[in-house]
Amino acid sequence: MESANFHYDRAMLEWQIELGATEAILDRPVNRYDAPAAEEKPKLAAPSASGVTPAVKVDHVAVAESAAAAAGTLDELREAIAAFDLCDLKKGARNLVFSDGIAGARVMLVGEAPGRDEDVAGKPFVGRAGDLLDKMLAAIRMGRASAQAPVYITSVLPWRPPQNRDPKPDEIAMMRPFLLRHIELAAPDVLLLAGNWPCQALLGKRGITRLRGQWTEVAGRPALPMFHPAYLLRSPEYKREAWADLLSLQKRLRDG
Q: Is residue 156 a contact partner of residue 112, using CB atoms and an 8 Å limit?
């Protein structure tokens, strides 16, 4: 004999089916928050705040070293510097200031960064400072155009810094490989370092009043720091020391 509960339960089930229930109800509730979560797909890297993927940092010095090493002649080095676009000074300069004088000379003079006159002319040491340099060299029977005792001239930087400001350390470091290659290809017997910035670039030192007149070595060659002609125009009281340095150079060339 069927119990009364059976008929009651059956009636309730049929009533729920009529209401649209199509799934059986378990004997205990299910906590859906405890159900295993669906497998998540790998997340993509979040974009930067600007929405732009950060660029890979370029080692400017390494690029300069590679470009300088590939130059086999002075003409090729000039072309390599002209094609070097990583130095921002190039964007504001009128002309590339590469060199003047006679390549292959026994003496190579390295000046500071080009100024306005050098930027316009595309040559180092022009204007008043250039005129004074020519007079200084002529006093020891040398000159940038002298057939008997020529001097080859370049600068630490090939482009003029804006408003003739001092070169920045990163600019010097970036262009230093080109300068060293320039010295190597020009192959002088002696180097003249005119001013603080050539000493900073090639000796890692500054303080020209302390360094001048003391022979040292750069790239395996004798090097003599001396006052820059522009400094002598501002401080003519140091011309005596500059004359002593020129005599020291003359003696070095004669004895060497």
A: yes
Reported in sequence order, the residue ranges of 88-180 that DSSP labels E, i.e. its strands, are: 100-101, 107-111, 151-155
Side-chain half-sphere of 167: how many Cα atoms within 13 Å? Answer: 28
pLDDT tens, position by position, 49-101 = 666 666 678 899 999 999 999 999 999 999 999 999 999 999 999 999 999 99
- Rounded CA-CA distance 196/228 in Å is 8
What the block records as the tokens of 199 is 């000493």
* Radius of gyration, CA atoms only, the chain: 38
Predicted TM-score (pTM) of the model is: 0.77
Domain ranges of the chain: 62-255
Where in the chain does DSSP place strands (E)? 100-101, 107-111, 151-155, 190-194, 216-218, 221-226
Spatial distance between the Cα atoms of 217 and 107, rounded to a whole number of angstroms? 14
The topology under which CATH files domain 62-255 is Uracil-DNA Glycosylase, subunit E (3.40.470)
Grade residue 27 by pLDDT with cuts at 50, 70 and 90: low
pLDDT above 70 coverage of the chain, percent:
82
CA angle at 208 for the pair 203 and 210, rounded to the nearest 5° = 95
Give 212's DSSP letter.
T
d(CA 176, CA 201): 7
